[in-house]
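Minutes, methods subgroup
Present: GH (chair), OT, SY

1. OT presented the first of two proteins processed in the latest run. Sequence and structure tokens recorded below as shown on screen.
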Amino acid sequence: MLRRTLVAQVGGYREDLPVAEDYDLLLKLAERTRFIALQEHTLYGWRRHPGSLTISTSRALDHACVTAARRTAIRRRYGHQVPW
């Protein structure tokens, strides 16, 4: 569960990351708030089918989008001086 105002403050989902937009959103939210794990409740279910984006995308695209989300998070943290 998320506060709508917090999602708006971090800019919401990035549409230029077709696979890792939710991962990117979580990285942005983690910079502004803390997370806790709720171990006793199921909050959502995940249904996979042959036409789903998760199955139909390539591993290269998955990797590229996750890498882009991570690099953007590092740039936000350290500025344009990426530490590598």
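2. SY then presented the second protein from the same run.
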Amino acid sequence: MRTFISIVRTFVLALALALLITEFVVVNASVVSGSMEQTIMTGDRVICNRLAYLRREPARFDVVAFNHFEDGQRWVYVKRIVGMPGERLEILDGIVHITGKDAPLPYCFVYGEIRGNYGPFYIPPGHFFVLGDNRVSSYDSKNWPDPFLPRENILGRAVFIYHPRLSLVS
């Protein structure tokens, strides 16, 4: 009987610890589309750090997991931050332009043919503008009915891919 109680206690403790870690430390995100290819591939599982933004705000080019609400549904998306609060952003021929910047944003993360014109978007305080690295097939800020990601919807910063391969997210 002692052995059984010890096993049950160990199991309950392990379960409680796992729940605490997933609720307060990490986000386990599953990527179901090609919107972040080649950085994150369809079917990849990603660990995101919930504690990353306790001491600093999200930065341009961070890859983040966040809650996206549309049509009464909640989705967890993984995208790259390209527009910051208070900025005016416009996409011309697929190139992201930020008012006040000398040059368009670099597209070193972008996969596939760059095309399309969107905006201008005036990003409100406390909100961000996010895009997938595979801009051609990404459902992101440029397409959403409400194009801005509220800060409170950000769950964490993507850190590494653990399945089906091991890789850091950059």
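Chair's summary of item 2: The first helix runs from residue 2 to 24.
Next meeting: continue with the remaining queue.
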